[in-house]
Design brief:
heterodimer, A: 112 residues, mainly beta, 4-stranded antiparallel beta sheet, 0% helix, B: 115 residues, 11 strands, globular
Chain lengths: 112, 115
C-alpha cells in the first residue's frame, strides 16, 4: 500500500542554518504531496503542497519539489528561525483522494 | 485559527467507558476526517465522511464509530475504552471529497486520557 518515510528526528539546528528534512514515498498512480507543520499544543496546518511531478511548493521560506523519478518531496529552508521549531509531517493523498497517509513526523529544534 | 472546532478539549475517563468527540468543520467544507495521534503510532487516519456518507476507512477499531450529520458536524464515538486509546484525536475538514490537492484543515484536537 501507499506509504511515506521521513527522516527521524529530532533535528537540532542553530538559527540561520540550512534545513533539509527528507521525505520519500511509495504510491500507485500520481499522488498529491504535502508538508504539514504542528506547533506545540496545536493541530496540524498545511505548510505547502504539490500536485504533479516537478511542481515546487513554497511558503514562509520553505520549499519542496515533487520528484517522481526519486519518489521524493524533501523540505528545505535556507535560514531557519527559532519560531520554526515544530514537528513537520510529510503526507500524500492517493490518486483516489480518499485517504491521506502521513509520515511519522520530524521534530525540529532551532536554537538561538 | 483553522475554522475547525472540536469539543471537548480534554477528556478524562475510565477503562470500559464510552465517550463522544464532536467536530464542526469549516464553513462550506463537506468532508470530515478523523485522526488519532499517539506517541507510539504517530498520526493514524481513522475515517472520512463526505456530505453525510462514509467515504474511506483507515485503521479504525470496531469499538470506534463515527457519523456525519445533516448540518455536516461529525461525532466520533469510542466505546469499551482501553488504556491504549489514550491519544490526541484530530478532526480535519476539506471542501471536497479528497480531490487531488484538496487541503485538509485541522482542528485543535481532543486529548483523551483513559485511566
Amino acid at each position: 500500500g501507499d506509504s511515506v518515510t521521513q527522516m527521524e528526528g529530532p533535528v537540532t539546528l542553530s538559527e540561520e542554518a540550512f534545513l533539509t528534512i527528507n521525505c520519500t514515498y511509495t504510491a500507485t498512480g500520481y499522488p498529491s504531496l504535502f508538508w504539514y507543520v504542528q506547533y506545540p499544543g496545536e493541530g496540524l496546518q498545511l505548510l505547502l503542497k504539490a500536485t504533479k511531478a516537478d511542481d515546487k511548493g513554497s511558503n514562509k521560506g520553505f520549499e519542496a519539489t515533487y520528484r517522481k523519478e526519486t519518489t521524493s518531496f524533501h523540505l528545505e529552508k535556507g535560514s531557519v528561525q527559532v519560531s520554526d521549531s515544530a514537528v513537520y509531517f510529510c503526507a500524500l493523498t492517493n490518486t483516489g483522494g480518499f485517504k491521506t497517509i502521513f509520515g511519522a513526523g520530524t521534530r525540529l529544534f532551532v536554537k538561538a | 485559527d483553522s475554522g475547525v472546532t472540536q469539543t471537548p478539549k480534554h477528556l478524562i475517563t475510565a477503562t470500559g467507558q464510552r465517550v463522544t468527540l464532536r467536530c464542526s468543520p469549516r464553513s462550506g467544507d463537506l468532508s470530515v476526517y478523523w485522526y488519532q495521534q499517539s506517541l507510539d503510532q504517530g498520526l493514524q487516519f481513522l475515517i472520512q465522511y463526505y456530505n453525510g456518507e462514509e467515504r474511506a476507512k483507515g485503521n479504525i477499531l470496531e469499538r470506534f464509530s463515527a457519523q456525519q450529520f445533516p448540518d455536516l458536524h461529525s461525532e466520533l464515538n469510542l466505546s469499551s475504552l482501553e488504556l491504549g486509546d489514550s491519544a490526541l484525536y484530530f478532526c480535519a475538514s476539506s471542501l471536497k471529497s479528497g480531490l487531488r490537492g484538496d487541503t485538509q484543515y485541522f482542528g485543535p484536537g481532543t486529548r483523551l486520557t483513559v485511566l
